[in-house]
Amino acid sequence: MSDAKIILDTNIVSYLMRGGREAEAYAPHVQGKLLSIAFITVGEMYFGAENKNWGEKKRKELETTLRNFVVIPYDHEIARCYGRLVAERKRKGKPIAPNDAWIAACTVRHKVPLVTNNAKDFEKITGLETVTERIPE
Question: Which of 11, 64, 131, 134 has its CA 20 to 30 A from that of 29?
Fold first, then answer.
């Protein structure tokens, strides 16, 4: 797997937007890398803005932030990966949330690590490498 490219989970994008200790903990994993996000992460970020009723200034900040990432679009190979990994996790008795499954499918399809603070959500997925950090209290 390439160490120059990574895919960020939605929680990492949120940390980077907010700054603070979470962003600092993940800084070594993102600096100097080609940062990508799955198409579903874009939707999750917009949902967060709507759900929290963000004002115009914060929404513009979101738009600016999202432009800093390569957005991985849907394709048929991602859909095949999605179907395989959802079935695989179900067989292992570890169902996966649909949005997490799409993020994982993008990561597996492109063979790059996923940086996440929720590595447990992505356990037991063949071909998926996660990078995580312990956030200091």
Answer: 64
